[in-house]
Amino acid sequence: MEPAGSGRNGAVESMVGIKDVARQAGVSVGTVSNVINRPDLVSEETRTRVQSVISKLGYIRSESARQLRAGASRIVALLVLDMGNPFFVDVAKGAERAARQAGLGVMVCNSAQSTSEEVEYLSLFAEQRVRGVLVTPADPTGHSLDGLRRQRIPYVLVDRVSADAAACSVSVDDVAGGRLAAHHLIAAGHTSLVYVGGPRDLPQVRDRRAGALAALEEAGLPAEALTEISAERLDVSAGRDAGARLLGLAPRPTAVFCANDLLALGVLQAVFAARISVPEQMAIVGYDDIEFAAAAAVPLTSVRQPAVAMGRLAAEMLMEETSGDAEGHEHRQVVLQPELVVRGSSLTPH
Amino acid sequence: MEPAGSGRNGAVESMVGIKDVARQAGVSVGTVSNVINRPDLVSEETRTRVQSVISKLGYIRSESARQLRAGASRIVALLVLDMGNPFFVDVAKGAERAARQAGLGVMVCNSAQSTSEEVEYLSLFAEQRVRGVLVTPADPTGHSLDGLRRQRIPYVLVDRVSADAAACSVSVDDVAGGRLAAHHLIAAGHTSLVYVGGPRDLPQVRDRRAGALAALEEAGLPAEALTEISAERLDVSAGRDAGARLLGLAPRPTAVFCANDLLALGVLQAVFAARISVPEQMAIVGYDDIEFAAAAAVPLTSVRQPAVAMGRLAAEMLMEETSGDAEGHEHRQVVLQPELVVRGSSLTPH
DNA sequence: CACCCACCATGAATCGATTCACCCCGTTCA
DNA sequence: TGAACGGGGTGAATCGATTCATGGTGGGTG
Question: Mean pLDDT of all residues in chain B?
């Protein structure tokens, strides 16, 4: 029964299409399509017959063809700043779960904080006609997103608020987070802090610093009580460098707040190498509460961000925007609250 | 015919296609296509005219349409076991760089060691008609890949050798790595080791253990000198649990070799919590040399795997397989060598 | 008996880009 | 002068699935 209609597929056997299924099942292609997409329109008998042919031939429908017709794909893109940061891995997990529940695929990409990579990826997404984009922009000007807007590709900002409300956004209140961290250190008796920040043009870095300043002010301490060290990047090795600079300060700081956990781990390492004990001689607080923060030899006090929830929410908001009629959509700015997780690296001294 | 030139697109302005460009530029669609794909076939004058229209209208070609025609997409998929493991992030980086250099996109997905997730993703890839797949299989039986083979989708195994040589593979010699680690500990004077492994059906876990056994034998030590503790998963929290069990052993072990760095960090944490000093009272060696290994408070001795190179090689081999004529392709099994990186966690005691 | 409806299935139009056979026209060469 | 040539361009066929207007059939109703 194999060389069904004719033997012409014997040579390459290339790819079985909907036509092959239709021929084998003795129905029209339209009917096969209905079996797949609206089974209730097809009689029981035809349906089972077609379906058995489908599985016998191993038919797999072509996404490109249906996309072409439908106009948009079933993929949402997620563009993050740093795949090496477990924080973004969590965001990706949340987004992925939500999207897949809705039958969409997620394409995770890494701009590595480079504006040019970002632009390249965004145009790739446009060519793919992705359903939408979840993005933590690298470009501080925000102009890299203009293309999306022109192409009418919906997008949701992740871990950033939309300045002009031109899109939905999900973010965490970084000022509150900075305040939590600094307040904790102040309450432990420290009267001056070092803030290990990163590139100034990152809103996260700025806001967390602003929060720390606010906490100082609330405690009646002067702004000069905050010393800032700027790391080149937000990763561990930059943290080590920052740690070295930190140790050069006189008098030696007793409390350090880092813009993220990668930096904090680097600082911790430098401090350890100098045989300074944590938290007795120096308290350290990080940000993000990545898994490795708890796993550090001196578990790191950190400001937890609801990363998974952020990813999930972002995906849900995107799907809300794409499914409902585009006109009736109101952009929303969701701001989540961070939470302090106290661990060994900042326990009250003495 | 149509109200062709009319303003009927004024309402939605939907999406500018190649036809719009052709009309505006006063040429045929075929010519526009040539301008984009084979510019040398078009006269200078026409080319610049068309190109200016393209940028004026903001035309972006539809990948689905060209895919449909071409039969295969310009995307390769990468399916890893655990996005939370920085090792795989590095693999992804390597693969991504290589693929993008060849003008291909990479879709990174995470099976989270679940066979069902893996199967689901693989069928998603088949629908997308991806150019090829790079995969570290979760399914120990390897049957989840049968679908790919049936669909004639080329794939390359990553961090695993292909048992039946049905595909290319890039892996690291895990036996050699295990031997390196154990030999190092033995040379430091330890006469018995604990191996903290993971799920037994993972070849990586088995091979590293085998390597350790080989090292013991070479040193004239009995196989009983190796005690094994099996963690549930290969992550930090499983490492903590394993660490607790480790501390329950009597006499207390002096040397521990972990199947990967996540486990080692967990063990390290448990050991620290018990106020046992590393490496003086207990030496620890991990595997993978992830960035956080060096950043641990007691920097972790680890077996470095060329993760980035592995990703790059895998992508290159895949592209080699897809570009050349399929018939002339010989599957290759590339095995890279690991390297021991000695740090504080295993320095010779006393 | 004529009419209408419900139910199934059909087949052609469509999505947007690529590709290829073919045409036009000016040059060159025998 | 006519043939051969070739650069530059055209337009229709094509990829595979979806969708919708249309057709056919059988049953129920006025």
Answer: 91
